[in-house]
Amino acid sequence: MSNFFSRMPLVKEQEVKIFRALILGELERGQSQFQALCFVTRLHRNEIIPSESMAKLRQKNPRTVRQAEEVRGLEHLSMDVAVNFSKAAQLSSHIHNVCAEAREAIYTREEDVKFWLEKGVDGSMFEVLPQGSDLPELQRCRHCPDRWKPCICSYTLSIEWYPCMLKYCRSRDAGGKVSSYKCGIRSCQKGYTFDYYVPQKQLCLWDEET
């Protein structure tokens, strides 16, 4: 299985969540040095701690390698829309930097596109990709014998640690009145599987190894 680096910046310009993966290529199989992918989805409220709240909390032993306190379930997402890199700045200014190496491989979901269109985002940056319902011969890449045929690729990544909610502690004053206050951050781990169209299986060779 190819190695990968993943990153999940969370930005609120249009309530956007960005995943970036860098997958090391297998030169003996005709691949380039690495392949970059970007997956862009809607950021829901309460999905992550607001940056303002995090700034007010001091972390003890910041250099410590930490284990997530909560493991959340695997989420399976169908990324059926391509995003035009040159027009994506109005969706999030971070896409230009985070996804610069994945210009031709930025994906999102039709349901998220509908949400952003209602927010006034220009629809010309989105292109609906072919799906199995449109092309009955379109297979999953793991079942496709021809390396040069289009197929539906699957890629799985895991965010090993991210701040998912605040912790609250209780205190009691001299009069016995109980009050709560923010006293820390709860961390989570979460996995994602993304399904998306590729014009040739050569761009998804890791999927045959699952």
Structure, briefly:
The chain has 210 residues and is mainly β. It has three helices and eleven strands; from the N terminus they run ββββαββαβαββββ. The strands form two sheets. Strands 1, 2, 3, 4, 6, 7 and 8 form a seven-stranded mixed beta sheet that branches.
Helix content range: under 10%
The protein's oligomeric status is single chain
Number of strands: 11
Distance, first to last CA = 8 Å
Based on secondary structure, the structural category is mainly beta
Average pLDDT metric: 84
Bulk shape = elongated
What is the H/E order?
A: EEEEHEEHEHEEEE
Radius of gyration (CA) equals 20 Å
Poorly predicted regions are: 1-12
Beta content comes to 35-45%
Count of helices? 3
* Main sheet properties: 7 strands, mixed
Structure, explained:
A hairpin with a 5-residue loop joins strand 10 (151-172) and strand 11. The chain is 9% helix and 42% strand. Strands 1, 2, 3, 4, 6, 7 and 8 form a seven-stranded mixed β-sheet that branches. The longest helix has 9 residues, at 110-118. The protein is mainly β. The chain has three helices and eleven strands; from the N terminus they run ββββαββαβαββββ.
